[in-house]
Design goal:
By secondary structure, the chain is mostly helical. The chain has one domain. It is globular, with a radius of gyration of 22 Å. The relative contact order is 0.11.
Length: about 220
């Protein structure tokens, strides 16, 4: 009985936090403050929004009209395609948290991740009906599709920017400064990752060539 009540309460909290994401989308200043400071958000809802975003990005390839998206299926790697969202998101979360921690940012790593995922909501909300729209509009009306598609990305970017300001309690100017600094930090992390994998590749190649040489001599 107690277990059932607990499960019902957990499910109710999850649904409430998921619905709260739409409030954050329409009332970002109040919403993102309450998301972390009043603990209105949950990791389960944040993960759900991220997963839905990934799914929408995938099904866009299949159901968007060929007029707007040309897909060469033999050249598509699904994992790399999904990584085009997951990698920048991970770098953004780590970079923003790392920088703001050094300069009195109030947000924790988990809060930065949660707020970022909540900020992605406009993408699936706008892109899903756009997939249907793409199959009924003509080429001449394609500009309408393009504008709405761009709005989904800009809207999500603005929400994420507002979210960072609210959870870190930064002023507008300071928030923009740290957003730019985070983007720079992301580039630095990508550079370090590339160097790391390059060193590993060279090391493995050296070991393989050394082993081959030893086997040849034996």
């Amino acid at each position: 009985m107690l277990s059932a009540i607990k499960n019902n309460a957990t499910w109710a909290k999850y649904l409430d936090s998921l619905k709260f994401a739409f409030y954050c989308m329409t009332h970002p200043l109040d919403g993102y403050w309450d998301l972390t400071h009043e603990r209105r958000g949950t990791y389960a809802a944040a993960n759900t929004i991220l997963i839905v975003t990934l799914i929408v990005r995938l099904i866009k390839l299949r159901f968007t009209s060929f007029i707007f998206i040309t897909v060469y299926w033999e050249e598509i790697n699904i994992f790399l395609y999904l990584a085009s969202i997951l990698l920048p998101l991970s770098l953004w979360v780590l970079g923003n948290w790392g920088l703001t921690t050094l300069f009195d940012g109030k947000g924790r790593l988990g809060q930065v991740y949660m707020a970022t995922c909540y900020g992605l909501l406009p993408y699936p909300v706008i892109q899903l009906p756009l997939m249907i729209l793409s199959n009924v509009v003509t080429v001449d009306e394609g500009g309408f599709y393009t504008v709405l598609s761009a709005i989904s990305l800009v809207f999500a970017g603005i929400l994420i920017l507002v979210a960072m300001g609210q959870i870190h309690e930064f002023s507008g100017r300071k928030n923009i400064l740290f957003a730019v600094a985070t983007l720079f930090a992301m580039l630095v992390m990508v550079f370090i990752i590339l160097i790391f994998f390059s060193m590993i590749t060279q090391g493995v190649s050296y070991i393989v060539s050394l082993v081959r040489e030893m086997l040849f001599r034996l």
